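Two proteins were folded this term; both appear here.
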Amino acid sequence: MARTRGRPALADRAQIDEAAAELFLEQGYEATSVDDIARRAGVARSSFFNRAASKAELLWTSVDHWLGVAEGELLGGSGVEETALERIASLCDRIPDEDKPWAIVHRDAMGTRDALLAGVGPRLARYEQLLVRLFGGTSTANTTRAQVLMAVVATRLAGERWVSGNGVPLGVHLREVCRELGLADLGGTTGG
């Protein structure tokens, strides 16, 4: 028997993300409210906020997930001698195409460009801190700071190629950009 009364069934975060992506494509980011997303996902407004802090947070689901994976895996040492950037590229090889951030891939159609610019700061700071630790330095050391900034540039360029792309893994793009920028040996080795 179909449920017709009472609170809606709880949706998981993926359902909310999917509802948001559909609505952003249909009516644009700015014209879509949290209430619209909750209704499309079949949840109460309060259930939405149990799974996401804001509408803007939904734009970053994939990025936040993979940053968490990177923090958990890359800082533990791999047992293999390889450069810091190779460790990052190896992790990036595992990111499937379906995890491309939809808000970035479809930023023009969804109208998410301004919201993405507003939300990139915390993710960039998190990635920079990961890189500082991965390169084994301090955030104030000039050499480490230069390494981190170059790695951020390389990752940004590789990411742009990946989201525009043709099924080539992000790690392949990162290695290619690193070669183009002369960063092949950046960071030394990080074996564990």
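Next, the second protein.
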Amino acid sequence: MQEHTNAGDRWIPEEDYQFVCARVPILCVDLLPVIAGTSRFGLIKRDTYDGDRGLNLVGGRVLLDESLVEAVDRHVDATLGSAVSVDTASLAWVGVYQYYRQPRPGELHDPRKNAVSITYAGIIEGEPRAAGEALSFHTFELSSPPAPSTFGFGQGKVAYEALTRWRQLHGA
């Protein structure tokens, strides 16, 4: 896991991680990145599960003693490259979302783990380059998001709520 999360030696061995995932929810952060100086936002395309691929927010697990903002910064760096930075003053809290291992009607699903994600929308600056788990980075007009069916893990619901929150705060 270290190779695509920039966790270094702060991450735990895969066998231990699987043991933990089988017993407790995993805390995560997600970000809907809004491109500085534009009316556009970005999403990564990544592998999901069962060989599928979909559009996703940028994010992942929070490390021990890592603040939520530090986790957002780390995941942006690991996924969009070191040339990209987050304007942390712009971070807008969107909500708390739970992903279930077993599918539930109308709920988010990730068969790998039960995760709880603190989700934000915020401005990124710099030139994004897909890295780590990101296969590619795509931008969209704030007013024209992709169809919910194009998202992985059911994140279309989360992205649409993040866009609504961003528009409420910024009149975009």
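The CA atoms of residues 54 and 150 lie 6 Å apart. The chain has a mean pLDDT of 93. These notes refer to the second protein only.
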